[in-house]
Amino acid sequence: MTRHIIRLLLAVIIGVAVVLVYRSLSRYSLEDIGSSLAMIPAWRLATATLFVVASYACLSGFDWLALRYVGKPQPFRRAALASFSALSIGHNVGGAALSSGAVRYRFYTRWGLTTDEVAKVILFCGATVLLGLSMLAALTLLFMPPTGQTLLQLDPWPRFWLGILFLSYPVAYFLCSIWGKPPLKFRSFRMDMPPTGLCAAQILVGTVNFGCVAGALNQLLGTFTDVGYLQVASAYVTATLAALLSHVPGGLGVLEATMLLLLPASASIGALVAFRVLYYFIPLLIGVPLFLLSEAYFRRRPHTVSPAASREAAGQA
């Protein structure tokens, strides 16, 4: 029954993804997209693309670490396949825990993970996202020059204390891994605090990921303005939080509107369109066929049931 529900959910997600790509691209004519990209020097586009690739590599690292956390380590190539397929869709469809989680479920249950272990992978990756956002926000606020414009034009002292507030989450998370923390329990589900080494890796990889995304934006905006990296990173963190709170699929429109609000003299809609194409649309156009091809590949292989899946099924019987 669970498998049929997952398959139905995946079919809906793929359908929504296709509709969203059409609706998203229809906001911009091909002429608009072409002219925006044409204004950006090739070397800046190439550098921004490298930052995007680095970001998705870090996101694959989220899954690779999560698989080690649940005791089912996989080669990085497997983690990258599942992560990229899931997140290229989840970033655009929205509701990442559900949409990308369903895709992850398809991959990881084939590789021996139980439903509870897949849930732990998703929660681990979600925690890494929050740690990375919080750490990048803290770094931008604490190291922003006194004259830098950021986060609704805050003065240096309010900016400093807000930076400390953001920093407190990753610091507390890391300290909990040292001192120990009671596990998260819900009925039969139990999730323990990751070991200290994994916690440190979460904070590092999460921060580098969002730093790379901000780097891609900074490269594209650099065509039109000399705005500094820290200002772009601060605006991006704020825009990402706004997009997450809005629940708009892919933060479509929210990301652009927030960036334009926070960097009115610097942000260019052309650069933001180029960023959305590089970070959202192109990965989606690769991720959906990649996922469908993997589904076809696994269907052609002889059907085998992993020991973990067998034990789970026996427990449900």
Task: List key phrases describing it.
globular; mainly alpha; 12 helices; about 325 residues; disordered C terminus
Please describe what this structure looks like.
With 317 residues, this protein is mainly α. 77% of the residues lie in helices and 2% in strands. A two-stranded antiparallel sheet has the order 1-2. It is globular and about 50 Å long. The model is unreliable at 303-310 and 312-317 (pLDDT under 50).
How does the SSE layout of this entry go?
Layout: H1 2-26, H2 30-39, H3 42-69, H4 76-93, H5 96-110, H6 115-143, H7 156-179, E1 184-186, E2 189-191, H8 196-221, H9 229-246, H10 254-262, H11 269-300, H12 307-316
Antiparallel strand pairs: 1-2
Helix pairs in contact: 1-5, 2-11, 3-4, 3-6, 3-8, 4-5, 4-11, 5-6, 6-7, 6-8, 6-9, 7-8, 8-9, 8-11, 9-10
Q: Calculate the terminal CA-CA distance, rounded to whole Å.
A: 12 Å
The Rg value, from CA coordinates, equals 20 Å
- Please, what is the oligomeric state? single chain
Overall body shape: globular
Count of strand segments: 2
The string of secondary-structure elements, in order, is HHHHHHHEEHHHHH
Overall pLDDT: 80
How large a portion of the residues is in β-strands, by DSSP E? under 5%
Structural class: mainly alpha
Q: Biggest sheet, in brief?
A: 2 strands, antiparallel
Number of helices: 12
Q: Give unreliable regions as ranges.
A: 303-310, 312-317
Bin the helical content.
Answer: over 70%
Task: Order the strands across the largest sheet as they lie in space.
Answer: 1-2
